[in-house]
Design goal:
Elements: H1 2-36, H2 39-65, H3 80-108, H4 116-143, H5 147-176, H6 181-208, H7 214-226, E1 234-243, E2 246-255, H8 261-278, E3 283-291, H9 320-323
Parallel strand pairs: 2-3
Antiparallel strand pairs: 1-2
Helix pairs in contact: 1-2, 1-4, 2-3, 2-5, 2-6, 3-5, 3-6, 4-5, 5-6
GO biological process, one term: intracellular zinc ion homeostasis
Family: Belongs to the cation diffusion facilitator (CDF) transporter (TC 2.A.4) family.
Keywords: Membrane, Transmembrane, Transmembrane helix, Transport
């Protein structure tokens, strides 16, 4: 438990930095809006409210993820990170919808815009800061397998992109004096924000629904194939899920039926050590041992097998396609 808490300290530090910076940038953007009365700048300022709310909720979810496993949560509390990302995605999409409707109204009933150069300077500075913080959060999230940090980082990267587009738009308005472009730019940025909110929500729903981690499955199958033992006749029904920073894999492995319990335990322990020694992340494995059947003999490479009913023909290479199916390879 102490090791896990130490591991999660960087996540807490990263999200706290994000929260503090989000508050400061939100105040700066609203100051820019009150200077200019620009809808496009209001778009960026409104999204900053979402940044603050999302970072606050993310900080709480990371705190929950540090709690140890208990009777009610045998897999730990890491799944709250998917819920955090879901909430952030919904908030982002909601902010985008509000921006589109507000900008559409102001396109029909425009208002005077002032001090665009000063506003563009403030927005450009906040965009650069969000870009740097976003990179920091994404890198920390990938290093510590935190979907919450990755989600918050990608959100800030989105904010930085919209800020860059906003600055370009403001310069264009200043040069052309076509002020209705302000609302058009705001609507386009709002649609972009909605799209990013959808993508984030889609990923979080997949995690909440225990969607299999395809990349992790590929890594595991590759490791098993490259280091397979003769006694490992086949691997099937292999699944992998992520719960916050914790990874869980369960699978069935077919072994010779005459192995005693000690030998079966040894083979399964070898798989556990292999995965945790060669995979990029520490993983909790749940392995079910199946006894071999006569139909397995033609692809079983077990040497000096005294119960073989058919000569060995050829090894069946394990792939994501056959290892994830819930059946032995001869079926």
């Amino acid at each position: 438990m102490t090791a896990k808490l130490c591991q999660l300290l960087p996540q807490k530090k990263a999200i706290l930095v994000s929260l503090c910076i989000s508050v400061l940038l939100m105040l700066a953007k609203f100051a820019a809006y009150f200077m200019t009365h620009s809808n496009a700048i209001l778009t960026d300022a409104a999204e900053s409210i979402v940044n603050v709310l999302a970072s606050g909720f993310a900080f709480y979810s990371i705190y929950l993820a540090t709690l140890p496993k208990d009777e009610n949560h045998p897999y730990g509390h890491g799944k709250v990170e998917f819920f955090s990302a879901f909430v952030e995605g919904v908030l982002i999409a909601l902010a985008g919808l509000i921006i589109v409707f507000k900008s559409g109204y102001d396109l029909l009933f425009p208002k005077q815009i002032t001090q665009l150069f000063e506003g563009a300077t403030i927005i450009g500075a906040t965009g650069l800061i969000n870009l740097l913080v976003g990179f920091y959060l994404i890198n920390t999230g990938k290093k510590h397998r935190s979907i919450t940090l990755e989600a918050d980082g990608k959100h800030l990267m989105t904010d930085a992109i919209t800020s860059a587009g906003l600055v370009v738009g403001i310069v264009l308005i200043q040069l052309t004096k076509i002020y209705w472009l302000d609302s058009v730019i705001s609507i386009l940025l709002g649609l972009y924000i909605i799209f990013n909110g959808y993508k984030l929500t889609r990923r979080s729903v997949g995690g909440l629904m225990d969607e299999s981690n395809v990349e992790l499955v590929k890594d595991i199958v590759c490791i098993l194939q490259e280091n397979r033992h003769d006694a490992w006749i086949d691997v099937h029904n292999l699944r992998a899920q992520q719960y916050g920073a914790d990874l869980h894999i369960d699978c069935h492995i077919t072994l010779p039926y005459y192995l005693d319990l000690v030998k079966v335990h040894q083979e399964i322990s070898d798989i556990d050590k292999l995965i945790n020694g060669k995979a990029e992340h520490k993983t909790e494995l749940f392995i079910h041992a199946d006894p071999c059947l006569p139909e397995c003999c033609n692809y079983c490479n077990m040497k000096e097998c005294h119960v073989r009913s058919e000569d060995f023909n050829k090894e069946i290479a394990w792939t994501v396609d056959n290892a994830t199916k819930n059946k032995k390879h001869f079926q």
